[in-house]
Amino acid sequence: MISPGQKAPDFSLPGVIDREPAIYDLHQFIDDVEAVVLAFAPSAHAPVCEDDLRALGESGWDDRGDLLVWAITGDSLFANASAARRLGIGFPVISDFHAGIADSYGVSLDDWHGHRDIPGRALLVVDSGWTVRHAWSPSDPFEVPRGSPFAAVAEALNECGVDVTAPEVEDRVDH
């Protein structure tokens, strides 16, 4: 997995926001913000992962001008649109269908419930200078950490000059 202090890879992937498809190029957006949160998930519909995405959506982080929030899943564009609508997510949900970008960040899974080459679950913070400031990825995407996995994300964002508080994750899905 990519480590704090390393340079984040650039990428260009299809995604959706408000059911509108677009191509999301990190290099076109990163200079306009203080930091970027990348929330990788095997599927936006998977237990625990959807809890994380819902909490991130409810955090209000995507309403800030100094912060970019993107979810990156192994789902298709259409499945991502459905999940974003159902979870009330107002930030882009991007499709890394064959885990090429997840692999470049070192967070891909070779096999997950019969799916091959899929993004794992991870939370990363990248600053405007392309430096990874925080990287977390459990070995099991269904792992439920003690406390919010966003606490360390919020700490890294605060160090980047983005004043946020960590959202609490409510486990609404049976695991």
UniProtKB/TrEMBL annotation:
Superkingdom assignment: Archaea
Annotated SUPFAM superfamilies: Thioredoxin-like
InterPro entries recorded: AhpC/TSA (IPR000866), Thioredoxin-like_sf (IPR036249), Thioredoxin_domain (IPR013766), Tpx_Peroxidase_subfamily (IPR050455)
Pfam families: AhpC-TSA (PF00578)
MF terms (GO), sorted A to Z: antioxidant activity; oxidoreductase activity
PROSITE patterns in alphabetical order: THIOREDOXIN_2
Keyword field: Redox-active center
Domain (Thioredoxin): residue spans on this chain: 2-162
PANTHER family: THIOL PEROXIDASE
Protein name: Peroxiredoxin
Organism: Natranaeroarchaeum sulfidigenes
Lineage: Archaea, Methanobacteriati, Methanobacteriota, Stenosarchaea group, Halobacteria
Gene that this polypeptide is encoded by: bcp2
